Amino acid sequence: MTFSVAARSADGKWWGVAVGSKVLAVGRAVPAAEVAVGAVATQALCNLTFKERSLALLRAGKSASEVVTQVIADDDRGGQRQLGVVDRDGTSASHTGAQCIPWAGHRTGPGYAIQGNLLSGPEVVDAMERAWLASDPSDPLARRLAASLLAGDRAGGDRRGRQSAALLVVTENGAHEGGSDVYADLRVDDHLDPVHELSRLLDIHEVCLDKNHVSGSTPWDDELVGEVTRMLDRVGFRPETNDRAGANSALNRWAMDNYLSRRILEDGVDNEVLAILRREAGETWRLTAGAADEARVPAAQG
User: Fold this and answer.
1) Which residue positions in the chain have pLDDT lower than 70?
2) Whether residues 58 and 150 fall in one domain
3) 102 and 74 in contact (C-beta within 8 Å)?
4) Is residue 302 included in any domain, yes or no?
5) What does pTM read for this prediction?
6) What is the pLDDT of residues 139-161, one digit of tens each?
7) H or E element: which one contains 248?
């Protein structure tokens, strides 16, 4: 009833799991990961003790295959379990019990373990593997995991339908606030299209909570000052003056309320911030209106 991918980044600094299922709140049960230890996905007849037991064995120096073998051997219902593990070195292993509800199976390779049960067919894990291998190894791990999960979902996913999805990614001191290695812990507990919604949440996470995410900026000029002033007035943050200083000051106040204050610049406007403000102010139509208007202009008559 679940399909997942556990993985390590190519540079060996990130570990994570992405998962989707036709079950409520799959993120509470399946994924686990720890920096410099590994990533774990437990599913099918899910045994939540597999997460800490697997991580403990990985901490002790066991390889992914050794962990899977030992954890399953110690369980009296191993035939109904599914387990995927990637260790600190990027080696991987998966187990699909003979009694897992079909279609059930897995795919593994350097840095990844993909597994699923009660799927529409093997095309799900095949699509996930293709998406993983097609992604750029230098891309953020969260994006690679999300791309793999989306490929599996669009290939059929859980044959009963869609309900929830989750993404867990860790790296050293990865939390925006500090004091934790959890870079992202995103959960869509009940949704008509949870994997797509998970990607939307990841977009927001990168803008608001990723300390290293860079999107470029648009320099201040008279046109931008006018646009930003108009939009801020519309969303309830009217600048005190109609100049760059007034626009920037009001933009700072708006950004503070939208958890975007760290992205405010003095010499321009962060492109992600500008896009969010345009959406909130209802200005996104301007991005395509010009091309549409040109298409409607009749040719000159000679």
Assistant:
1) 285-302
2) yes
3) no
4) no
5) 0.84
6) 999 999 999 999 999 999 999 99
7) helix 244-257
